[in-house]
Amino acid sequence: MTTATSTAVDPARAFEKAAEALNRSDAELPIDEVDRALKVAPSDSRLWHVKGLIHREQEQREIAIPALRRAFELAPGSALITHGYSRTLLEAWLQSVEAFGRPLKLNPKEKSGWSGLLPMTGSPRRATGF
């Protein structure tokens, strides 16, 4: 077996595994697999999103914010991605009101946009929306 074959990763499967792990408080977060998947699919907004959420969960917002910003750049119409980016800016005490306004414009009925403008409650891990 060659090295390339043994380290190959399926980006869709890496995303599914990461999303599932983020929704479970007892699951190990597969950041290495997500990073390998991003080498295969560097324009996959979903992978950038889960990478950011994993780093956010690990309280590494200095890594989470650029990853979430990249996800937002790749999918500016996604209310879910925009909310994750906005929420992480808020948690890092950075300007976030304008960022929260974007998902509200995209979908005013979506509760996640409004929730960012309210006091924070609950675990960030359970606020992924997956």
Please name the defining characteristics of this protein.
disordered N terminus, 130 residues, globular, Serine Threonine Protein Phosphatase 5, Tetratricopeptide repeat, mainly alpha
CATH class: Mainly Alpha
Unreliable spans: 1-6, 121-127
SS strand fraction: under 5%
Named CATH topology:
Serine Threonine Protein Phosphatase 5, Tetratricopeptide repeat
What is the residue-averaged pLDDT? Answer: 81
Q: What is the oligomeric state here? A: single chain
Helix/strand-derived category reads mainly alpha
Radius of gyration: 15 Å
CATH architecture: Alpha Horseshoe
Question: What is the terminal separation in angstroms?
Answer: 35 Å
What is the count of helical runs? 8
CATH superfamily: Tetratricopeptide repeat domain
Order of helices and strands: HHHHHHHH
Sheet with the most strands?
A: none
Kindly state the number of beta strands: 0
Helix content: 55-70%
General shape: globular
In total, the number of domains comes to 1
Task: Describe this protein's structure.
The chain is mainly alpha-helical and 130 residues long. The protein has a single domain (3-119), classed as Serine Threonine Protein Phosphatase 5, Tetratricopeptide repeat. Helices cover 62% and strands 0% of the residues. The protein is built from 8 helices and no strands. The protein has helices at residues 3-6, 11-22, 31-40, 45-57, 61-74, 79-91, 97-106, 111-115. The longest helix has 14 residues, at 61-74. Residues 1-6 and 121-127 have low confidence and may be disordered.
